[in-house]
Amino acid sequence: MKRLNTQLQEDGCPLELILLIRTLLAACKEISFRVSQGALAGVLGSTLSDNVQGERQKKLDVISNQILKDILSESGYVKAISSEEEDNVIGCNPEGKYLVSFDPLDGSSNTDINSLIGTIFSIFHAPQWMEPSDPSAFLQPGTQQVAAGYVLYGPSTMLAMTTGRGTHLYTLDKTHGGFLLTRGNVQVPKETQEFAINTSNQRHWEPCMQQYVADLLAGDQGPRGKNYNMRWVAAMVGDIHRVLCRGGIFAYPWDNREAKKPGKLRLMYEANPMAFLMEQAGGGASTGHGRILEVMPTDIHQRVPVLLGSADEVNACVGYYKD
Ligand code: AFP
User: Fold this and answer.
1) 283-298 tens-digit pLDDT
2) Residue 197 Cα to ligand 1 middle (Å)
3) Best CA proximity match to 230, nearest among 268, 202, 266
4) How far is the CA of 77 from the centre of ligand 1 (A)?
């Protein structure tokens, strides 16, 4: 079976980026171990010795953030970090070539029920002019990502990643600690009969989204002419993984619960990396009004509406926004 390193080399990934990705994944392996300990996390200690101290009372998302922060900032490859768990950008090596944004533990409310969670990451080139703690350097559109992916902590630990040469799925071989390619060049089926959306928010959506979902629910008697099934993991990593594996549409649209929040999910470390993975797998990734990857960020914690998945279904949904 092909190792991650070999695949990255075949995809023409520069050496320093390969080294950064391997460093980031070392942190994710540590998180995978912690997550697998469940309620025992923090009691049994770290596999990477002293990186995380006094974590006994900390929650897994805080521990995961600390692990990523420690390992990435010590690596030398990273100029600055931005995390869901940090209000501000963290400056690292002024000579570092890359910027890394991450959600250390997406779906963290699932930790209480031993369900799917994961780490999502996005990597950009660091502009030479930037000061390490300058947040404006992160404000690049998703089209500028050099690599993105997630590590899913499920029954097995899986990595989905793209460096712009297709989306590949790897499985962590816990016997030797390496990620092995288990599905190269994933292609999301163009059509689907499966959707994922939190329908408890239905009354808050825009009329176009209400109409779209009403038409899905009408099944073969409605305008879409087919019956749909619904799934909701409540962790974007879990839902997107399913969509990458067998198709579907995942939507977290704009809603009017809080006027200042144009959606729930974060552009820099949720929407952008998932959009990159999805497009590289032949799927669609839209806000309803345009390509997610072309959104020009104004804030490192900015929120956006997302429609991600099978290309024909995403296009069908976008069509309701135009009517
Ligand atoms: P948490 O990390 O706070 O559990 O949020 C997860 C998430 O950001 C995303 O992973 C899910 O798709 C979405 O929120 C679930 O949202 P609902 O609370 O509406 O189910």
Assistant:
1) 999 999 999 999 999 9
2) 11
3) 202
4) 30
Q: Residue with the nearest Cα to atom 1 of ligand 1?
A: 107
Say which residue the tokens 């993984």 belong to. 241
Q: List b or e across 165-183, with b for residues whose CB sees 16 or more CB atoms inside 10 angstroms.
A: ebbbbbbbeeeeebbbbee
Is the entire prediction scored with pTM above 0.90?
yes
Quote the ligand 1 centre to 236 CA distance (angstroms). 7
Give residues with Cβ within 8 angstroms of 138, minimum separation 6.
80, 82, 89, 99, 101, 124, 268, 297, 300
pLDDT > 90: percent of the chain: 87
Question: Ligand 1: residues whose CB is within 6 Å?
Answer: 106-109, 198, 234-236, 264-265
pLDDT score of 52: 43
Q: Determine the Cα angle at 232 with ends 275 and 58, to 5°.
A: 85
Q: How far is the CA of 252 from the centre of ligand 1 (A)?
A: 9
- φ, ψ of residue 255 to 5 degrees: the values are -145, 165
- Angle (deg, nearest 10), helices 311-322 and 207-217: 130
Q: Are 258 and 289 in contact (CB under 8 A)?
A: no
